[in-house]
Amino acid sequence: MIISLRLPEEDAVLFRKYAELNSMNLSEMIRQTVLQRIEAEYDAQIYRAALAEYRENPATIPLEETDGKV
Q1: 37 within domain boundaries
Q2: For the chain, which has fewer Cβ within 10 Å, the N-terminal or C-terminal residue?
Q3: Distance between CA 21 and CA 18 in Å, rounded?
Q4: What is the pLDDT of residues 45-57, one digit of tens each?
């Protein structure tokens, strides 16, 4: 799939330089960055849900009692 992205020239230069510094082409750099952002937001959402659940029921189970199935 091809996605077009319009950027101010100064942003385009910054993106290209960043990709070059990290030995990536521009497409791979943008792809990795977007995937990392999605993952971070998903992790934060899971954390907030787990924290809310813990606050409702703060009981904990020692790791030794989990049989390695946490």
Answers
A1: yes
A2: N
A3: 5
A4: 999 999 999 999 9
In a domain, 15, yes or no: no
Q: What is the pTM of this model?
A: 0.72
Establish if 59 belongs to a structural domain: no
Residue 2: phi and psi, rounded to 5, are -110, 130
List the Cα angle 58/37/47 in 5-degree steps: 0
Separation of alpha carbons 21 and 60, rounded Å? 45
In angstroms, how far is CA 8 from the centroid of its own chain? 25
Question: Count of CB atoms within 10 A of residue 31's CB?
Answer: 13
- Sequence length of the chain is 70
Under a CB-based contact definition with an 8 Å cutoff, are residues 29 and 19 in contact?
A: yes
| Tokens of residue 53, six digits | 């659940």
The dihedrals phi and psi of 67, each to the nearest 5 degrees, come to: 65, 25
